[in-house]
Amino acid sequence: MLERWMNAKTEEGKVLGFLQNFFLLIAAFGFFFYGVEHWVIDHYMESFWARWPFYVSMIGFPLAIVMFFTTHKAVRLPFTIWMVVSVLTGFAGALLHLIWNANDLGVSLFTISGLLESFQVPYRPVLAGLAHTHVGAVGLVVGLTAAVKESSSSSAPPHTAPRDTAVTRTERNAP
Prior knowledge:
- Mean pLDDT is 82; it is low at 152-158.
- The protein has seven helices and no strands.
- It starts with a helix and ends with a helix.
- The chain is mostly helical and 175 residues long.
- Helix 2 (11-40) packs antiparallel against helix 6, helix 4 (73-105) crosses helix 5 and helix 4 runs antiparallel to helix 6 (126-145).
């Protein structure tokens, strides 16, 4: 990604390269930060599913770092797949936090008051799970646009000469 940005020849290529690198930096920092956060708050010690966000962060961070240096398909494809895993992890985490909060409080999620009460529990924040969704979505934008190659010409379609409408001798003589 860095090399593609530095070697971009057109303005569109430079802008795309900058945005890809900026989004990749957000994803890399997010995976590092959330990995450290999960380790600090002992989120990784309870069960396999409690450790899953930690694993997503610890695999996502090196993948994001490698993407800075190459966009080869062997790196781009696992990175893109892992970003989808991160998005799904975030949605699942938010849902599980919400369900566990409702169980702890003994309320139903099918009532407005129960849903709001479950949403506001401070020791298991529902929005925390969505952090992985954000990081994964930003990384997914990079993974899906990394295959785009910069064209050497402008984005306008090439000019084609109008077809000669004059009748040629062979067309005149045709039966």
